[in-house]
Every structure is written in structure tokens, then in C-alpha cells.
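Help wanted!
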Amino acid sequence: MNKFVDYFRNGIMESNPVLVLLLGLCPALAVSTSIDNGLGMTAAVLFVLLFANIIISLIRDFIPARVRIPVFIVIIATLVTIVDLSMQAFLPDLSKSLGIYIPLIVVNCIILGRAEAFASKHKLTESIADALGMVVGFGIALLLISMFRQLFGTGKLSIFGLQFLRVPGLAENPMAIFILPMGAFLVLGVLLAAFRYMGVVSGE
Amino acid sequence: MNKNSFSSDIYPILFLTIVVCIAVVGLVLTNSVTEERIEEARTEALKEILIAQFPDMDTFEYDEDIEVYTIYDQDQEIIGYAFETEADGYGGEIELLVALEGTDMREGNIIVKGISVLFHGETPGLGARIEEDAFLNQFEGTNVEDIRLTDDGGDIDAISGATVSTEAVVNTVHESALEKAALIRENMEVSA
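Answered by r_m:
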């Protein structure tokens, strides 16, 4: 049982995909303009990574080594298309604001990385623990980045239209730079530095 | 070629083929479930955009040849027209919906009812302010001849710090409204 806790914890702390491994930065930086987008992206990645890990772990003994990468990509691309179509059908607004970044989950290196490095070598239950840990780690990173960008970039904090914080002064004259791409790099850089300094995450 | 190397060659091909077949089945199933809903969601979104411009709208018709929506009220009278167009903004294409009053479309009688920004990639705080009512309201009920920047003798005030975005929107609305009005008029003459 401890092993599963370790695998789960690994994705959040020692191997946090965004904050330690610096994987999946494209979606992490691009969609983190608001908390809603961050949560939507995390939900999409949760579905794809969890099922990719489950399927690949189940068929790991049958996958011929020479075609393993094409097999992984076909499975991941299928899952992503399912998410994309379902979002367009049932959550059109979210689908519009995440735009091209949903189809791009196909080439998100976290998912292919976990398939190759973990799911193809581990048992089903361990692969599930790994997927959940990775997604929670990814989600925490996205939530932090999008929270700071939304706070400084708009002066307000809201989740799904529910506003719970409004900074007087900042809301009228927000620092738009935080919504721009360079704001994403700034926030990520400061977060990385802060976490290393505090010893929350460690590189080696 | 002995039997062993044959099977080790054929197995990966067979395996990948089976995986792809299963994936195709999964996608066909997903598509059949979502196809109708996606179409519905799109029509719903379009209807919302049109109603924002024409609160009295009951139904609308799309003419594929001239790419114009004709808007009808409850008595099936034409109350206006709308069309989508694209402007070259600072951060890429700006997608616009332009609504026209239901006039006879004669020169000098082409009135813009209003415009909506459907999509843009302009800079937040600068070009993105084309989405604000203060800018968009200037188009409401304006004769197309006056849809030019005040500097060019028109009625539309530019947004400071967003020259490229505002010029793109204003000029595109002006030109595309004239162009579409001519097409609508042609259609009217043919049917009359």
C-alpha cells in the first residue's frame, strides 16, 4: 500500500511534471490565463492520462517494442479526440476558451512520457496511482500559475463566474502583462525559484 | 526467410492494425453520440449572438451564396441582416458579426445596427478594448458612410493605444457592409 502512496506523492513532489520536470509547459503556460481554464485543462489531462496509463498498462506485455511509440500515440490521440468532441458537445464555452490546446494534448510530453517511462513497465494499480499523482501535480501547478496571473492581470479572482475576491485599485488598472505570454513565464519562474528556495521541491 | 523472423515481422504490423481498428470504432461511437449535440450547441451560440443584435428576432435564414443571415420577426417580416467578417488586427484575425437594419439597402441608406466581436487575439488592456461597449456602442444605428475614424471624417472614436485594432475593425465594417449591402440589394431586385 505504501508503494502506491509513494507513486502518488512522486507526481506531486519529487517529479512534479511542471514544477520539477518542466514538462507540459506549452499547455501550462498558454491556458493559465484564468482559474477556469486551468481547471478545465487539468480535467482534460486527467481523463487522457488516466485512461492512457490504464490501457497501456493492461496491454504492456503484448505491445511489440518496435511499434510501441505509434501504439501509444494512437491510444492517446483517440482519447484526446474523445475529450475534444465531448467538450465541444457539452461544454462549448470551455471548449472555445481552451481552443487549440485540447487537440495539442496529443503531443503533451507528460502523457507520452508516463506511458513510456511508467505505464508500459508497471502494474495496473501502480499506473493508476502514477497517473493520479501526475495530474494532481499538474493541476496544483496550473492552479497556482493561473491564480497569480488572474489576480494580477485582472485584479479579480473568480471560479466559474463566481467572483470571490476583488482588489480595489488593481481591478480598475490591472497589470495586463500577467495575462500576456511573458506574464506566464514570469510567474512560472518566480514559482520555481520560490519552491526550490523553500525546499518544497528539489531538482536532484 | 524462416518462420520465426516472418512472425516477428508480421506481429507488430498486426498489433498496430488491431489497435488502430479499435481506436476507429471508439471514435465512430463518440462521434455518433456528440455530432448532433455539437451542431445544436453551435446553432444555439449563433442564435444568442444574433438575438443580442436583434432582440425581436424570431427566426433567421442563411443565404449560402452571399453568406448573409436574414433576420425575421414574429410576423415573418424582415427586420435586418447580419453577416460575419474578418479584420486583420494586431494579434491576428478579429472575427466580427455585423448587423444591418432592414432597409432597402440603397446607397446612403445602409445603416449598421450594431457589431459583435466573436473572436480576437488582441493585446489585453489595449487592442482587446474593442470588446468594450464604449467602443462597440458607437456603431449602433450609424450610417455606413459615417463608419470611419473621426480623423478620416467619420463618427467613430479610436481607442488610444490601439490604432491598429480600431482601424482594422472600423475599415472592415465599412467596406464589408457596403459590399454585402450591394449583394443583398441585388438579391432583392432579382426576387422582385
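OP: Thanks! One thing I noticed: The beta strands of chain B are 59-63, 68-72, 78-89, 92-101, 111-119, 142-143.
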